Each structure stands twice: as C-alpha cells, then as structure tokens.
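Morning, I've got a small favour to ask if you have a moment. Here's the protein in full, and shout if anything looks odd to you:
***
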Amino acid sequence: MIDYGLNWALNDQENSYNEEDNNFARQLKYFHLKDLEKKYSTEHLYVKAFYLHHLLDYFRETRYDVNNLELVLEKFLENEIIFEFLDKNGNSINYQLVLKQIFQLLRENQRELYEDLKSVHNLSLEKNRE
C-alpha cells in the first residue's frame, strides 16, 4: 500500500492526531490541517486528493467486482475509511459531503475511470513480464 503522507503525518510538529488514531485517521487529520493552511481550504483539495488516492488503491486491492461501481463505493465506505473526527479543539470535522462529491464525480465519469483503471492494470502486467 502507498504511504499517502503517513511519514509527514507522524512527523508533524502540530501532532494533530491522538496516539490511538489509526494511520488513516492520522493522515486525514494531517491533510485537513494542510487544507486549513491554504487559501483554498474551503475546497478541501488535500483531503479530496487523499480520499481519491485511497479509493483508487481500493479498486486495485478489492476482491469485489470492480465493474460494479456502487458496490465498490459501498464497500469502501464500510471497510476502509472514516469521514468524521474531532479536531484538537473538540470541533467535529465531517467530510461526508466531500466523499459524496468524489463519488458523484466518479459516477459521472465512469467510462474514463474504467479506462484509466484498465490502462494502469495493463501497465503493471507488462512490468511483471519484463
């Protein structure tokens, strides 16, 4: 599995996570703070990229039928991710809307998604043959 900034999150001077947080939660909190540092924080670009990377990796690793987009999205929500946490001030941060936006984008661009997934899969197969 790809790092997705875990080293950055673990070495963050702000230490925005709790010791009991899993790696996913640590990374999410880190990228939440990175978004807050930027002028476009309301667009959640770091968090969106983080979720999208995890989701695309999930497509590669899942045993579910990847041709069934709705099933993959449902299982991703069930098995892989959190979308809500408390920040260091005790405020609830919820990224459910961000996930809905990502899912809608994938639904609207399903053909392109599957073309990209197929080309990436073919590239990895070619590398294994060499």
Summary: Residues 51 and 99 are 7 Å apart (CA to CA).
